[in-house]
Design brief:
The chain is mainly alpha-helical. It is 76% helix and 0% strand. The protein is built from 16 helices and no strands. It is globular and about 65 Å long. The protein starts with a helix and ends in a 37-residue tail after the last helix.
Length: 475
């Protein structure tokens, strides 16, 4: 909640930050881009650190560091310090995020993971919805620096609690702690940093020589990473994870779902503000059904996951998400709050359900020894997917309707309305591909073949394996 609140509130206060620090538009953009590159490139390695040294310890370091960096941003005297401290926030954010999933994997038996993950998702959705409103109110009354002070006290309290409160710790079945694989971590960081930087630059610059070179660098580094992992004695991403009949497809589904949702939200926001000429507050209210349905659908999806299994639940949710994108593609100048709210509601319901169910699949089917890496891969998918979706949306809109203006994408109303349907249809195809991938998921969640080690027990001394569970494959 702290991380999501901080990130969404920043988008509202960036204009005030730019004026106060006399910063350029590019510098202000780097307050977001620097954080995103740092967090995306380090998530998997941070998860492996948790697997080796303990998720609670890594979580505490990440949370306390995030609090200190937030306070530093509030005290920064220039935009250069803000950018550097936002990158620092990204480093500590990368430490704490996979650790949350790793701690859940250790604290709850597999058959009870759905609801904790659902509550986590609801909290993220709630804070993401509240961030712009709270950030705007604080910036108006107390200045933009107050937004960063907002997260300091809660983060400090959470970090201290993580140090003093004992939580269940998973035993390593393999006897030796997993290796860190620094070479693999470096190659993966370069791959993701180049990829994210390229995808962030495309909406502003288009496909230029620089962005094309960035994409090529990501492909080369990615190929080197794959080759290294195949030969490494202790790879950063164990092949057993990606070869799983559940984990690989679930990660692909998370990328497709977040790309479709955030790409559609990007187009929908410009439609509301530029075509319908709504002010930011009315725009937020018209899109509010997305946040509401995301929060509400998360706990309901845990029930569906338990009763219907991952294949049916995620396939149906991806279909709902696809319908939501298609509903937005039919909007025009005469559309009112009912039509737009209906499309956004479908987006929220589908995405909230997919996020919970697919995350539960990734965490549940990963061995406890690799829970941090699995959490890092899940968080990476959730960071890369939105940048892919926005890049696809902007590239399509620009190709179909050349934009005007020097400070971001701006399209004439008529050109925007002609380009919006095919752009959103493309994003709907991305969501449909995610629904197709969902048909490869296991029909029912099966318990992993793990024997409870001494001390590796849930609340009340109960074993982590459900009664009667025996050896079975992830499928």
């Amino acid at each position: 909640m702290v991380v999501a609140l901080d990130g969404t509130a920043l988008t509202v206060v960036q204009p005030a930050l730019q004026r106060d620090l006399d910063a350029s538009f590019t510098q202000v953009q780097w307050t977001s881009t620097g954080y995103l590159i740092a967090v995306a490139s380090l998530l998997v390695f941070a998860g492996r650190l948790g697997d080796r040294y303990g998720h609670r310890r890594v979580f505490a370091v990440g949370t306390l560091g995030f609090a200190a960096a937030s306070a530093g941003v509030g005290l920064a005297s220039g935009v250069g310090w803000v950018i550097a401290l936002r990158v620092t926030q990204g480093i500590f954010g990368a430490l704490l995020q996979p650790a949350t999933l790793g701690m859940l994997r250790a604290a709850f038996p597999p058959e009870r993971l759905g609801m904790p993950i659902a509550l986590r998702t609801s909290a993220i959705g709630l804070s993401a919805a509240a961030g712009p409103v709270l950030g705007g109110a604080l910036a108006t009354q107390l200045g933009w620096r107050s937004v960063f002070y907002l997260s300091v006290v809660p983060a400090l309290l959470i970090g201290v609690l993580a140090l003093v409160v004992r939580v269940p710790a998973a035993r390593n079945r393999e006897g030796t702690p997993p290796g860190l694989d620094p070479a693999g971590a470096g190659l993966l960081a370069v791959t993701l940093a180049c990829l994210v930087h390229t995808l962030v630059a495309v909406p502003e610059q288009g496909w230029t020589g620089t962005t094309s070179a960035g994409l090529l660098a990501a492909v080369v580094a990615g190929g080197a990473f794959v080759r290294h992992e195949r030969r490494a004695a202790s790879p950063l991403v164990p092949p057993r994870l990606l070869r799983s009949t559940a984990v690989g497809p679930a990660l692909g589904i998370l990328v497709a779902a977040s790309a479709a949702m955030f790409g559609a939200l990007f187009v929908g926001t410009y439609f509301l503000q530029d075509v319908l000429e709504l002010d930011p507050l009315r725009c937020a209210l018209w899109a509010l059904p997305l946040a509401v349905l995301m929060v509400v659908s998360a706990p309901l999806s845990a029930v569906l996951l338990r009763r219907q299994g991952p294949r049916r639940t995620i396939t149906a949710a991806m279909a709902v998400l696809t319908l939501g994108v298609l509903a937005l593609s039919r909007l025009d100048e005469a559309s009112g709050p009912l039509a737009t709210g209906g499309g956004f509601a479908l987006l929220g319901a589908g995405f909230g359900t997919v996020m919970v169910a697919a995350t539960a699949v990734v965490v549940r089917h990963a061995p406890v020894a690799d829970a941090g890496v699995a959490g890092g891969l899940q968080q990476t998918a959730m960071n890369v997917g939105p940048t892919v979706g926005i890049a696809v949306a902007t590239t399509s809109m620009t190709a179909l309707a050349p934009r005007t203006g020097e400070r971001g994408p701006q399209w004439p109303d008529s050109a925007f309305l002609s380009a919006m349907p095919p752009t959103l249809t493309t994003l709907a195809v991305v969501a449909a591909l995610g629904a197709l991938a969902a048909t490869r998921l296991p029909r029912w969640n099966a318990a992993r073949p793990e024997r409870a080690a001494p001390g590796d027990q849930g609340p009340g001394g109960t074993s982590r394996l459900p009664r009667g569970a025996g050896p079975s494959s992830p499928a």
